[in-house]
Design goal:
With 198 residues, the chain is of the alpha/beta class. The chain is built from six helices and nine strands; from the N terminus they run H-H-E-E-E-H-E-H-E-H-E-E-E-E-H.
Length: 198
């Protein structure tokens, strides 16, 4: 089942990264390595057709989610939660730039992403690019993605299995934390308030 694949892949990724990060490391190194495991430079196209990288959002926290506009269930659910969190933060949410990076650049044009993200929150920006650009962005965030078809699909019709973590990046673009799928809006808002208050 696609959902099971996504959840299993996420758990497997977290477990393997935790083991890798801690293997052979002293106590002080264990957590210090995590910020270097996620995020980095990317070169993508925003909803207005502009070429952007992390520098375009410098000075703001970034909430980064990988998904796609044809996603039938998981992405809409997760983005609805993200939108609720942003609304709950009030004016503080202005310091956060929510981003949806497409895992399906073949179908996610800037126009398609603009229409999709506008349905969730006015500040949510969709980013897409060439297959190579999206693959590079997915790689630095260690995001799994895979096309597949289910029974009844044919031709160009397909779904994309993908990781479902939401990454919190600092104002300098470095990794701060991540939210697994299923994190409640209340918990996510609590964590964000902590970082916003520092």
């Amino acid at each position: 089942m696609p959902r099971c694949h996504a959840v299993f892949a996420t758990l497997l990724l977290l477990a393997s990264l935790a083991v890798s990060a801690m293997a052979g490391a002293g106590a002080g190194e264990k957590l210090s390595r995590l910020p270097n495991l996620f995020g980095g430079p990317f070169h993508l196209t925003d909803e207005q057709g502009r070429q952007v990288g992390p520098d375009a959002y410098a000075g703001k926290f970034m909430l980064v989610y990988f998904g796609y506009s044809y996603c039938p269930d998981i992405c809409p659910t997760d983005l609805t939660i993200m939108a609720a969190v942003l609304d709950s933060l009030g004016e503080s949410a202005d310091r956060i730039q929510p981003l949806l990076i497409s895992v399906d650049p073949s179908r996610d044009t800037p126009e398609a992403l603009r229409e999709f993200t506008d349905a969730f929150h006015p500040s949510l920006i969709g980013l897409t690019g060439t297959e190579a650009e999206v693959a590079a962005a997915a790689k630095v965030y260690r995001v799994h993605r895979r096309r597949f078809q289910i029974e009844g699909m044919s031709g160009d019709d397909y779904l994309v299995d993908h990781s479902t973590l939401t990454y919190l990046m600092g104002t300098d673009g470095r990794f701060l934390s991540m939210f697994p799928r299923g994190t409640t809006p209340e918990r996510m808002a609590e964590v964000l308030r902590k970082y916003l208050s520092e």
